[in-house]
Amino acid sequence: MPLRDVRGPSALGGGARRFFDLLWLMSVTEFKRVYFGTVLGYLWSLIRPLMLFGVLLFVFTQVFKIGSNQVDHYPVFLLLGIVLFTFFQEATSNSVTSVVTQEGVVRKTQFPRLVIPISTVLTGAFNLGLNLVVVFIFALAFGVDPVWSWLLFPVAAVILFALTAAVSMALSVLYVRFRDVAIIWVVVAQVLFYATPILYPVNFKEHHSTTYEHLLMINPLSVIFEQARIWILHEPNAPTIVHAAGGWTGLIPAFAIFVGACVFGVLIFNREAPKIAEQL
Amino acid sequence: MIPTHRVDSLKERVVRPFSAPDYRELRALDGVSFEVHQGEFFGIVGRNGSGKSTLLKLLASIYRTDSGTIRMAGRLAPFIELGVGFNQDLTARENIVLNGVMMGLSPREMRRRTGAIIEFAELEDFVDLKLKNYSSGMLVRLAFSVMMEADADVLLIDEVLAVGDASFQQKCADAFRQMKAQGKTIVLVTHEMATVEAYCHRAMLISEGRIQTIGDPGEVGRDYLRLNFEREGSGEAVLHEQADDVRIVGLALQDEHGAAISTIEHGTDIRLRLELEALRDLPGIDVGFLIANADRIDVLNFGIPVGEREGARSVRSGERVSIEARVENHLAGGRYFVHCGIYRAFEGGIALYQEDALDFLVFGGPETRGVFIPEVDIESSIGRGPA
Question: Is the Cβ–Cβ distance between A172 and A269 less than 8 Å?
């Protein structure tokens, strides 16, 4: 047998196959644990977004007439947004503490460290998949016609997954050093919820200034959510993302933030991964 | 490097942005170079905090070396602690697969081995029970079985041998012997010297991050015991009794070079040195020593009459008497107390009795239930009795 250097722990140390085997196994077991470990199982993960949906639907159709006036299928629009955002929020906030929660394993065994945050995100993605089934059933029930562009939806989902994974990677290792990250992230996620067109469409100020639209489109989540809305609801009067951003150049900030987040997430995780066990 | 003060919150960073964190350098390991050959059973021993666990974690790729290289051939299975990575909410079957995949085996391979693992652990009736319902003994058995079936070329094991009930321990011992026979390379970290001597081909003693001894397990074991006990007392007596007739100037336990010691290896002579001063003219004195064990059972008693000269006995005021005793050390391991008595030879009575003048520790030597280990000639013969 040939002698090989023992390089110590790293994000992907141990080989790609081991990474994917472990990732799959950990995500699936966690998913099963949540859904078969409780009496109501899957219902729990649906109840939260549905409650939020119910409250917001009432507020924005009965109290403020914002929703029903501007979007053809406001309930579907709202539910889609909530389900997508729930994935982002739950996956990232679960990831914050994931490495620290798995302390025992991290300090005592060797395995690709990246598995920890990514499996948390993947478990969230399984959830998202189930919730989306509800969204599509809902869409059909509300009279949204199925169109070919529904097939494009996975593109938006994959981009959202990538962004969520990158943010989760950064948060999970930053939390090891700075415990404030958990508190800060709760606030940031709350702000992001309102800074993303979930409750309101991006063109909420129809005949007025488009400054708000342009500002909103700096948020990469807005771009992803808006494109998902276009593909699924195919409303004739909804602006395209290019239009909402005020031309292709308007999309550059969102794209830059997206790429920046991905690069930052990968780099910082890679840098911190070998030291996690010592810092815990 | 370990920081003396960890900056754990952003506030501290913000409030004191320019104060560089204070670091106190602590080299957990320094200049530790060694080779373990294929098929070798290698033991690593050391006191708490000596750096042996750090070394194991470096070997297991849990920590990264700050400098230096580690090279290894073949697949490694680290067992820094039994049952790490077990998820309490999953069944034994699921945990076996998870544990195996963590070590780099494929899920399919682990599913194939599940039967054998469960059988070895004697947990056939509990395969689909969640681990949170397991007893600690069952957990340990499961973990040990996974380790045995991991089929790695190199195993790193940290203090796990004393697990389970007697019959399972026997099974583990057999499994170790089997692995040894199969030519697996095993690195074992332990406190148990008996284990090292029973299984290891070679061993290494680490002290304060450096290699103290490397080589023969027996020698490493003795050095380890020496290291453990050398920080005992000074070997000088604590004297509190006072008398009008005599004064004890000094009483000590010494090694062959005359230095005061407080631990003696079994088989090494016990050397006692006593110095007295007469406070008045005495017609003669007798000095006796009594050595008692920790249970306060008197084990040895010896003494000597002092002051014999020119046919008569006398010790004059101000004169000093030195007594040196050398006793063959047949004592079983444990703590002993030395009492010292000085008696008036002709006038009668005790001039001075110093209880617990010294205490010392005997280490090494064979395991015994007795208090004394004499040389024994023992034989057996077998024959037929008268018809």
Answer: yes
